[in-house]
Amino acid sequence: MLLAAAVLYTATCAPGPLWQDSGIYQYRIWHNDIEGNLGLALAHPLYHIIGIAVKYIPLGEFGYRINLISAVAGAFAVANLFLLLRLWLKKNSPALIAAITLALSHTFWRHAVIAEDYTLYAALLLAELLMLLQYVKTKRVVFLYLLGLFNGLAIDTHMFASIGFVCYLVFLVFLLAKKQITLKHLLIMAVLWIICAAPYEYLIIKNIVESGNFRATMASALFGNRWQSNVFNTGLSAGLIKENLILLAYNFPTPNLIFFFAGLYGLKKVSTGRGFKNILIALSALFFIFAFRYTVPDRYAFFIPFYCLACILFGVGFNLLISLPNRKVLAYLVFILALLPIPTYIIAPAAAEKLQFGLATKRKVPYRNEYTWFLRPWRTGSDSPERFANEVAGSAENNAVIWADTTTVPPLLYAQQVKGRRADIKIVSDLINSEGSPEFDERSIEKLLAERAVYVVSPIDGYCPNFLLERYSFVPSAVIWRVVEKQTK
Q1: What would the pLDDT profile of 250-289 be if each residue is shown by its tens digit?
Q2: Terminal Cα-to-Cα distance of the chain (whole angstroms)
Q3: CB–CB of 243/294 below 8 Å?
Q4: Could you give the CA distance from residue 134 to residue 429 in angstroms, rounded to a whole number?
Q5: Are 129 and 280 in contact (CB under 8 A)?
Q6: Residue 455 burial by CB count (10 A; 0-12/13-18/19+): exposed, middle or buried?
Q7: Which of 62, 105, 260, 265 is the most exposed place for a label (fewest CB within 10 A)?
Q8: What percent of the chain has pLDDT over 70?
Q9: Distance between alpha carbon 28 and the CA centroid of its chain, in Å?
Q10: Are strands 480-485 and 426-428 parallel, antiparallel or unpaired?
Q11: What is the DSSP secondary-structure string of 456-482?
């Protein structure tokens, strides 16, 4: 299963530089940066530590190597899911249907072929559940130690792991009260957790020492610099509900979805301790609720932990309804239906574009078909970031200054810093800049315009500073826009 998933994701992996957050990950790894500048909750140090190690492997394109981290992690996640259900249900077919369902789900596949930390977290989450299952089955406390180890690594990867931490802590308190474990066992777990979470703890301690502000540092560690209101959002609009339901349906575009609901019902019929099943239900509910009412633009990615839990229930439901000797024909049909996502992802972009289905995007990014980009998970041959950066490098004037938004700034800096193209250009943004970039604000803009050419990538509200939109005009120049004085009547 590990090899099959690895082949799938490696074959469909993005070949080089990327847009937006994924490009920022590549940029941070290039600069050996395990903290970033968006707040500690978005540091994801374990992913970047792995990336820094991979960076020094002298094989192939740097960006492709970094993207492959997600592919390998995604393969481990799929294999862990298979192993969990195989050990639990003692059958191959339910484990296989669950693994295929997760592997081909749109959001998981999409994040397994670009530089992102979600598949690494998914692999660790499913490893945690494997250890929990083995403890419940064997009562060997070594599996609790491994649970603490994997959750510590998961905390280093994504703050999703804090949800699992709370659930496991409740379970451990229950075991302690029932005298099934001792304080010594709990202490060993805690030590292993602290050791494995050390990179994140280091960043927290470092920031407390440097800022002297414990409260602000902990807020940064839990929510990042500006996402606290999103994390605590309790409002649900009709539009948000509709979008979330479409996302869920698009990840599982198959009649096999019925197995999820059968799995919820069938949990009580599967032998294993109540603790394991209660944690499965609690994690499923908490991950679903968190993602469903989250309001960041890329909230679709935050459903990935729920999809991992949902696919466990797919396997349980298949085992309840199908996995019997006299239902072989029906089982084969289910496996065929499990492959329906592939033709769906082939057909959907063209159909959505023809129908002008709204994708909630404000502008078109150069060389990128928005429908294909958002609706098709694989990235084989996807070179739009590199083509965009090459076009800019070939058309901008000498010593130009280019304002780029957070989506387009990573490939521009990748071309400049990784590929060594156009070191004379200064690329500036709200997030990251070229080395030695000039000040770019209301006070400095007139001087900049008098001395050199100034460009923006998108003269659109939200992607360009307001002082430029209010005071200047924009003339198209290849795939960017040159800033010029407004013509007066």
Answers
A1: 999 999 999 999 999 988 888 777 889 999 999 999 999 9
A2: 68
A3: no
A4: 49
A5: yes
A6: buried
A7: 265
A8: 99
A9: 16
A10: unpaired
A11: ES--SBTTB-HHHHHHEEEEEETTEEE
